[in-house]
Write a structure and sequence with these properties.
By secondary structure, the chain is an alpha/beta fold. Helices cover 40% and strands 15% of the residues. The chain contains 9 helices and 9 strands. The strands form 4 sheets. A 3-stranded parallel β-sheet has the order 3-4-8, sandwiched between helices. A two-stranded parallel sheet has the order 1-2. The chain has a two-stranded parallel ribbon with strand order 5-7. Helix 1 crosses helix 4 and helix 5 crosses helix 9. The longest helix has 17 residues.
Length: 263
């Protein structure tokens, strides 16, 4: 039987990776930190597949086209820089490896984009500034499928992962409002005001020794102009065919949130 070790198995993406691995008849071993919550795992080496992030490359200016695997990395945040460093350290090791760089991941169990969803469901469509943006998204189970495809492939390369579409600043909110058949007041918050709020949240959560979802670094990524990436390489070499676009992925996500009493 094929075996796979999934680290961070109790996390958001780990849940989807386990499901994808089980669907391909892998015997799954879950790597967990001590004291991790893992009750849901009771339901359920080849080469290494490292889940990096498009943040390791960083965004482009609006008029600079599209992010490819050859785009020179210029990460905006410590998170992106740490992912890029991990990629480079992995390249130094003498093991078969594949690096996946997914864009913004959403889906069941995700918590950061879920905050935006909850705000929209309360009738508030808040946007940071009014400058146009080119955004990309990918549904969690599609990322998991790409990882399993990579595990079974002979590839040893870096691959961008998204649903293959380009979205505007407002497409996420518009898709959600269509799904739940609800209106929301669209407002544009000054970037300077959000920056001040992020600074205050950093200080407050720092006193409580808690992480903050909105930081001044994260804000740089949220207002970036162009996160569109080319996935043709993943399509050709990993046989990666995204099953979900933003509307169909959000439809499944909202259904899961409802069934599990998140909303």
């Amino acid at each position: 039987m094929k075996r796979v070790l999934i680290t961070g198995a109790n996390g958001f993406l780990g849940f989807h990776l386990i499901n994808a691995a089980l669907a391909q008849k892998f015997e799954v071993f879950a790597g967990l930190r001590k004291n991790s919550k893992a009750e849901h795992l009771s339901q359920f080496f080849l080469k290494m597949v490292f889940i990096s992030s498009l943040a390791a490359v960083g965004p482009l200016k609006a008029n600079e086209g599209i992010i490819t695997e050859k785009t020179f990395p210029s990460p905006l945040t410590s998170y992106g820089k740490s992912k890029l460093l991990a990629e480079r350290k992995l390249a130094e090791l003498d093991i078969e490896s594949v690096i996946l760089r997914p864009t913004a991941i959403y889906g069941p169990r995700e918590k950061e984009i879920f905050v935006i969803i909850k705000t929209l469901l309360k009738g508030i469509d808040a946007n940071i500034g009014s400058k146009p943006q080119k955004l990309s998204f990918v549904y969690a189970s599609d990322v998991a499928d790409a990882a399993i495809n990579a595990l079974l492939s002979n590839a040893k390369a870096v691959f961008n992962i998204s649903d293959g579409n380009s979205y505007s600043k407002y497409d996420f909110a518009d898709a959600l409002k269509h799904i739940v058949n609800k209106k929301a007041l669209r407002m544009h918050l000054p970037q300077s005001a959000v920056h001040s709020l992020a600074h205050s949240l950093e200080k407050f959560n720092g006193w409580l020794n808690k992480p903050t979802m909105l930081s001044r670094e994260k804000l740089k990524e949220l207002v970036a102009e162009n996160w569109i990436c080319d996935i043709s390489k993943a399509k050709q070499e990993l046989n990666f065919i995204p099953k979900f676009n933003l509307e169909t992925g959000l439809q499944e996500t909202i259904e899961w949130y409802r069934q599990n009493n998140w909303i």
